[in-house]
Write a structure and sequence with these properties.
The chain has 283 residues and is mostly beta strands. The protein has 3 helices and 14 strands. The N terminus is likely disordered.
């Protein structure tokens, strides 16, 4: 492996994105991806070339950013991910499939955004899945979440100190993160594959639309200084964290999302428009 594809410990810089192992598919260029999509997926299927908005990958071998999960705060103050509208789509052969898709600002938001790294097999990504959309606490990454029960719905009050919170890894007031699961609750009769989602409440979130090419989408996808993304590193599908590792400072990744496995870095405050070939949902 070319070591230059990884962050150096001497300062932050941008890197050529390495295409490694399972990342080969997700790292394909747009033209190559379109050709691959034509050869691999039937038209109107549940996978294929997909445009999305994600948090920018700025260093390390990850080929692209992680997709944003639009969210809202309900009338009682609980955090919920927004799931796209469900509808039927007619394929070229006359048959129909059920897809999840809706327009959010200037962006077409679909369930295909999250169909990579094995997540495409998760029950929660099926249009007909009987799941609510609450973002539920998944303790282990951040000490403050040890005060919550696993699976407890996150509330705005849990983040009331977000403008001053610190765990001594990043800057005080950069934001308060949480590790959650989304559309992943089980009725106890079967195992349900979890969809890991990271949530951040930061004063900087309110500035995201003005600095983005998708301002209308980001106004709909963020609320009350909250932003969320599917926490699956696009390199080898690890679970990175915002200010979760003390090693992050060695790679200029303070106040960023850092993957300890292979030193990929993501800038949550830099949402970008991206494309990738989504895997089809498991039928």
């Amino acid at each position: 492996m070319d070591e230059d594809k990884y962050p150096s410990e001497s300062g932050r810089r941008r890197f050529v994105k390495g295409v490694v192992g399972s990342a080969t598919l997700t790292g394909a260029g747009t033209a190559a991806t379109a050709a691959l999509n034509t050869a691999t997926y039937e038209v109107g299927g549940t996978g294929g070339l997909t445009d999305y908005v994600g948090i920018e990958n700025t260093a390390g071998p990850a080929p692209r950013g992680m997709p944003i999960v639009p969210l809202t705060v309900d009338d009682e103050g609980y955090l919920k991910g927004i799931w796209p509208e469900t509808k039927e789509e007619v394929r070229e052969d006359g048959s129909t499939i059920v897809v999840t898709e809706q327009q959010m600002g200037e962006v077409t938001y679909t369930g295909r955004w999250f169909q990579y790294c094995g997540a495409q097999t998760a029950q929660g990504l099926r249009p007909e899945a009987d799941q609510d959309n609450f973002l539920r606490s998944s303790p282990g990454m951040y000490d403050w979440q040890d005060e919550l029960d696993p699976g407890e719905k996150l509330h705005v009050d849990d983040f009331s100190d977000y403008e001053t919170w610190t765990n001594d890894i990043g800057s005080r007031g950069a934001g308060k993160p949480a590790q959650t699961t989304w559309r992943s609750q089980s009725d106890g009769d079967e195992d349900v594959q979890e969809l890991p989602v990271q949530v951040l409440r930061s004063p900087k979130v309110s500035n995201l639309p003005e600095a983005s090419t998708t301002p209308a989408f980001l106004r709909e996808a963020t609320e009350s200084d909250f932003v969320a993304w599917l926490d699956k590193c696009t390199h080898f599908c690890c679970t990175p964290g915002f200010n979760s590792s003390r090693d992050a400072s060695k790679f200029g990744a303070e106040d960023a999302v850092y993957c300890q496995c292979h030193q990929s870095v993501y800038d949550v405050f830099s949402p970008v428009e991206l494309s990738f070939p989504a895997f089809p949902r498991s039928e």
